[in-house]
């Protein structure tokens, strides 16, 4: 489908593994290349939640691409979903819509997706940003979303056995892990564990006081927070 321009935003679709994903690009200026992919979270997440942040990024000179994962937003939902399927969809979008050197931003659920993309050297990702990012028990990664997946997540401390932690030892780029001080969903220890395993990365942890897990909604109405996040991503 040809893109439809809406100001500096272009809308299109991408076929991946039997699904049709909604995609948009937010340009930063005259034909500037897109280096950044932004991945939304789970639940009722969709790419529109990050539009205010991405528009701020564009004003910082940072163009970006984003998708609705299958089953979210305007994308199709024909096949069972899993974290593994999410990774395949993100990989396809990264390859199709961004150029090197690349930055990937993962919100909540997509924290692990962003980290896994970065651990593939061929992707040439030089900066990973996780916003209240999650990691998952390796046993849950390929399970279809449903009772078995939920049971794996409910096991106390299951995230400590995330396979992505071992993979992170091979990442050599920059890593920005943003935590929210009032986050009741993602334990603060997740970021510390990722940093401990990302021994070859230039890693920083940024704590946001007075912010809870709903960071996308908060940044959409909080100009100062939005500017802070954009600076962390674009710098």
Q: What does it look like?
A:
- The protein has a 9-stranded mixed β-sheet.
- The chain has one domain (4-234): Rossmann fold.
- The longest helix is centred in the middle third of the chain and has 15 residues, at 83-97.
- The chain is globular and about 50 Å long.
- The model is unreliable at 1-7 (pLDDT under 50).
- It has helices at 51-59, 83-97, 110-118, 147-154, 164-167, 189-197, 215-221, 223-234; strands at residues 4-6, 9-16, 19-26, 36-39, 64-67, 102-107, 125-131, 174-180, 202-208.
- The chain is of the alpha/beta class and 235 residues long.
- It contains 8 helices and 9 strands.
Largest sheet: 9 strands, mixed
How many helices does DSSP assign? 8
Low-confidence stretches: 1-7
Major beta sheet, strand line-up? 1-2-3-5-4-6-7-8-9
Please tell me the CATH architecture by its name: 3-Layer(aba) Sandwich
First and last CA, distance: 33 Å
- The first-level CATH class is given as Alpha Beta
- Summarize model confidence as the mean pLDDT: 94
Structural class: alpha/beta
Write the layout of secondary structure elements.
Elements (H helix, E strand, L loop, with lengths): L3 E3 L2 E8 L2 E8 L9 E4 L11 H9 L4 E4 L15 H15 L4 E6 L2 H9 L6 E7 L15 H8 L9 H4 L6 E7 L8 H9 L4 E7 L6 H7 L1 H12 L1
Helix pairs in contact: 1-8, 2-3, 7-8
């Amino acid at each position: 489908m040809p893109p439809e321009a809406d100001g500096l935003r272009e809308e299109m679709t991408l076929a991946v593994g039997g699904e049709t994903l909604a995609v948009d690009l937010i340009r930063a200026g005259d034909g500037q290349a897109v280096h950044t992919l932004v991945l939304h979270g789970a639940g009722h997440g969709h790419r529109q939640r990050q539009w205010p942040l991405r528009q701020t990024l564009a004003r910082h000179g940072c163009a970006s691409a984003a998708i609705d994962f299958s089953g979210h937003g305007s994308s199709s939902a024909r096949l069972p979903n899993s974290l593994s399927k999410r990774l395949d969809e993100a990989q396809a979008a990264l390859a199709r819509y961004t150029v090197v050197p690349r930055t990937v931003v993962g919100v909540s659920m997509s924290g692990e997706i962003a980290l896994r993309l970065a651990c593939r050297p061929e992707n040439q990702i030089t900066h990973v940003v996780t916003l209240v990012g999650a990691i998952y028990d390796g046993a849950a990664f390929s399970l279809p979303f449903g009772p078995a997946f939920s049971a794996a997540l409910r096991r106390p401390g299951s995230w400590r056995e995330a396979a992505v932690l071992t993979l992170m030892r091979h990442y050599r780029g920059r890593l920005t892990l943003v935590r929210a001080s009032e986050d009741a969903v993602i334990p603060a220890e997740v970021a510390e564990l990722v940093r401990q395993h990302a021994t070859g990365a230039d890693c920083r942890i940024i704590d946001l006081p007075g912010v809870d897990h709903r960071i996308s909604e908060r940044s959409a109405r909080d100009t100062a927070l939005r500017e802070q996040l954009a600076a962390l991503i674009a710098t």
